[in-house]
Amino acid sequence: MMNVSDNHPPGFDQGPSPSPFYWLSSADNDWQLIASALVGLQSVPGLIILYGSIVKKKWAVNSAFMALYAFATVLFFWVLLVHRLSFGDHFGPLLGRPAMAVPEEYLLKQQEVFLFPNATYVFFQFAFAAITVILLAGSLLGRMNFYAWMWFVPLWLTASYSVGAFTVWGGGFLAKRGVLDFAGGYVIHVSSGVAGFTAAYWVGPRISHDRQDFPPNNIINMLFGAGLLWMGWSGFNGGAQGSPNPVASLAILNTHLCTATSLFIWLTFDMLFYHKSSVIGAVQGMITGLVCITPAAGLVQPWAAMLMGLISGSVPWYTMMVLHRRIAFFQKVDDTLGAFHTHAVAGALGGLLAGLLAHPRLTKLVYVEEQYHHGLFYSFDGELGNGFKQLEDQILGAVFITVWNIVITTLICLVIRIFVPLRMDEEDLRIGDDAVHGEEAYALWGDGQKTRTYVRWSMSPVLPAFCRGSRGS
């Protein structure tokens, strides 16, 4: 028999040999795997369905496929390099030391902070990284060259997302300052909204007809995708604690309170000013509520979560429905789904409100390090200096993530366009999915086939010759 005496932890010198995973909390591990699956379902199939349904019919396949491709590609590069850049040993104030997250000895080892293995943490954080890239794609639907997107995903993940994750969560300089970001308002939403808007500037707009006439092709399916996004957020914010403890429960309740309030406020503004109860508007209000509460979900009391919902349902509504139409620069940049407003604006609001409303007791439960302080609202009893410092740190975090994403996204786009156009050619833009992928979302046999691109069948010896020709032949 194999000698297992070396598996004894300190203090176990007598009796039967314990499990080598004596440190494991099965409850924590089970919850974290469930939370990871919920976050993953927000992307696949949640955002795939949402994107494929909210766009014009001719872009349904391309939009859904951009999300699917990003999800798969992020996982590949995440385990090979980016996870350790984001959460590895310190290599400087911006990044961890490069290394792979695939060796068994690393994956089965206890995570530094939580009572589950690194493998669980790697997958949980992958799901966060994947949805960030997919949210970014919402700004680029309906015109980005898919081959450029194939380059963009790993480059942006490596050069931009990793820096945001490490600086805020991995022990980088923003973490040392004490920036509060409970589950990703800055790391995920400000970065995706700003990077999406920046990339949209460099890619260029959709064709004029699509910008003026871009109706959803299936509103019921859109609501199904939105529902998966909303319910999946229980894992998004509830999993940030790494344990199914009372703070996680509060974070989940706050998430849904803020979201419901935000949806109601957005819908109210739509009805007051446009006299229509817009379904798309309700979904936008839902998203801004989810995003706004994320950096503060486990740090605020329920009344504060509802206040945040009121703000997230009104301020982004104003920036999207009023300012966007009045400012020429916003009009110039074609942000297809308004990700700048629903993610960058709402995420920044949530981060700043965390600096105002974070409750002292909850903040101490989540952050034990002394550099983290509660919100300014609770600092008028002799800790005003700490309250102002926390708000200053929240502003610093928002500014850094914004500037970094503008610069890095710009550089990535400029590099990619040296090798491949960022935007599809005009003919493909006019036709849509059939020109780009040779497939259509809602085509019966022989219906809507505008091109002859059947590459996937080109080697078949039994299909008619006309099915094997190249496009335009």
UniProtKB/TrEMBL annotation:
Localisation: Cell membrane; Membrane
Transmembrane keyword on record: yes
Q: How does it sit in the membrane?
A: Multi-pass membrane protein
Q: What is its main location?
A: membrane
Q: Which SUPFAM superfamilies match?
A: Ammonium transporter (SSF111352)
Q: Which domain of life does this protein belong to? A: Eukaryota
Question: Where are the membrane-spanning stretches?
Answer: 31-52, 59-81, 121-141, 148-171, 183-204, 216-236, 248-267, 279-297, 303-324, 336-358, 395-420
**Xref: PROSITE patterns:** AMMONIUM_TRANSP
Annotated ranges, domain Ammonium transporter AmtB-like = 31-442
UniProt GO MF annotations: ammonium channel activity
State the GO CC annotations.
Answer: plasma membrane
Q: Which UniProt keywords apply?
A: Ammonia transport, Membrane, Transmembrane, Transmembrane helix, Transport
Gene3D superfamilies referenced in this protein's UniProt entry, alphabetically: Ammonium transporter AmtB like domains (1.10.3430.10)
Q: Which family does it belong to?
A: Belongs to the ammonia transporter channel (TC 1.A.11.2) family.
Q: Give the protein's recorded name.
A: Ammonium transporter
Report the source organism.
Cocos nucifera
